[in-house]
């Protein structure tokens, strides 16, 4: 077991996702079963008591890797010395809302948290924004932490990625572990572009086994609108699957992605695929040595080349436009 515990700050610790997330972190599922963790739980004052209840349960779990749990409503001390920050705390949407409708309620949360990260987090801080609208919130936090390398601020599209992989596997009757090289481009919103053009099943191209109508009419909208379907069914937004995706995201960031696959992460663009510099956009990425790297130079297949009439967010639109321009074809995105 390594000696120094990793300090992990989780905001919104008394919420649904927090409850599904914290016990898995304490069990070593995020950073490894030999890495001790110290948890910092940040909540708003009204929810501190509930977070303290969660901390009591964490104690009662007798997790060998759990070196301590602190609960606070003080933003500055929550991030002091933090190595990892999971920014979950934010209002979820209700039925009939889009995630962008949450900006007014949630946008104000992320500037002070970014500033607190700037002021006191450890040099190796890695940030995952889960609270919606996640891409915009990540950009807000990042802009308030100018001395932290921008690529340390990420937003979660891993849930969309996992939804896409799972849906493809079920459709093809294949194990989830056989599906690789799926990409979510764009925002964690209904305008994202789940892209199967490079995907493989058991190492073979997946596209020839799919019907274009199924991709257009079921797969893409099914993935992009899954969050709303869950809200409709549960009466509350996804929680355990979101927590699981957050664990997957951080585990891959720290421990690396498999050599023959990539994942999807929203991070500040470096200009790849024509996405304006700095815009937080989901790309295909690999991780090695603790850093993400955008998968460059992906070619485009006939399906994606023909385009779709769905609206796209600016970052996905730019990405797709740049890929298409290589083929000198008209731009069909709106
Ligand atoms: P929840 O309402 O159950 O919990 C949110 C918690 O955040 C509450 O306990 C609240 O007190 C706390 N909170 C609010 N403002 C805070 C602040 N300034 N500092 C610290 N804590 C604060 O909601 P949830 O189901 O846990 O969802 C949390 C967020 O995650 C929502 O915005 C939801 O839309 C989003 N979400 C994102 C994804 C994704 O894939 N990116 C997936 C699922 C949910
Ligand atoms: C999800 O995708 O499940 C979350 O972003 C919650 C939501 O509002 O859809």
TrEMBL record:
Keywords: NAD, Oxidoreductase, Tricarboxylic acid cycle. It catalyses: (S)-malate + NAD(+) = oxaloacetate + NADH + H(+). The active site is at residue 188. GO terms for molecular function: L-malate dehydrogenase (NAD+) activity. Substrate binds at residues 93, 99, 132, 163. Residues 157-305 form the Lactate/malate dehydrogenase C-terminal domain. Its EC number is 1.1.1.37. Residues 306-334 are annotated as: Disordered. NAD(+) binds at residues 12-18, 106, 113, 130-132. Residues 7-149 form the Lactate/malate dehydrogenase N-terminal domain. Belongs to the LDH/MDH superfamily. MDH type 2 family. This is Malate dehydrogenase. It comes from Microbacterium album. The gene is mdh. The chain holds residues 1 to 334 of 443 of the full protein.
């Amino acid at each position: 077991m390594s000696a120094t515990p990793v300090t992990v700050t989780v905001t919104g610790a008394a919420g649904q996702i927090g409850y599904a997330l914290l016990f898995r972190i304490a069990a070593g599922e995020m950073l490894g079963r030999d890495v001790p963790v110290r948890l910092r739980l940040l909540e708003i004052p009204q929810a501190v008591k509930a977070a303290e209840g969660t901390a009591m349960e964490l104690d009662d779990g007798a997790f060998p890797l759990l070196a301590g749990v602190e609960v606070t409503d003080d933003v500055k001390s929550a991030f002091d010395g933090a190595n990892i920050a999971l920014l979950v705390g934010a209002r979820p949407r209700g039925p009939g809302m889009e995630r962008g409708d949450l900006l007014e309620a949630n946008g104000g949360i992320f500037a002070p948290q970014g500033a607190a990260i700037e002021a006191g987090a450890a040099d190796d801080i890695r940030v995952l924004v889960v609270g919606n609208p996640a891409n915009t919130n990540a950009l807000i936090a990042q802009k308030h932490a100018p001395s932290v390398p921008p690529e340390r601020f990420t937003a979660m599209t891993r849930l969309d990625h996992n939804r896409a992989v799972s849906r493809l596997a079920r459709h093809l009757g294949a194990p989830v572990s056989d599906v690789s090289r799926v990409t979510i481009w764009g925002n964690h919103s209904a305008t994202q572009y789940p892209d199967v053009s490079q995907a493989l099943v058991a190492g073979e191209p997946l596209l020839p086994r799919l019907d274009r109508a199924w991709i257009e009419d079921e797969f893409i909208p099914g993935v992009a609108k899954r969050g709303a379907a869950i809200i409709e069914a549960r009466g509350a937004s996804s929680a355990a699957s979101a927590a699981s995706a957050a664990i997957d995201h951080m585990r891959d960031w720290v421990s690396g992605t498999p050599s023959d696959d990539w994942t999807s992460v929203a991070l500040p663009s470096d200009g790849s695929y024509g996405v304006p510099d700095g815009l937080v956009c989901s790309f295909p990425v690999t991780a090695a040595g603790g850093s993400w790297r955008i998968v460059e130079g992906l070619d485009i297949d006939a399906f994606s080349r023909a385009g779709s009439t769905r609206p796209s967010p600016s970052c996905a639109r730019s990405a797709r436009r740049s890929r298409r321009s290589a083929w000198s074809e008209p731009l069909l995105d709106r």
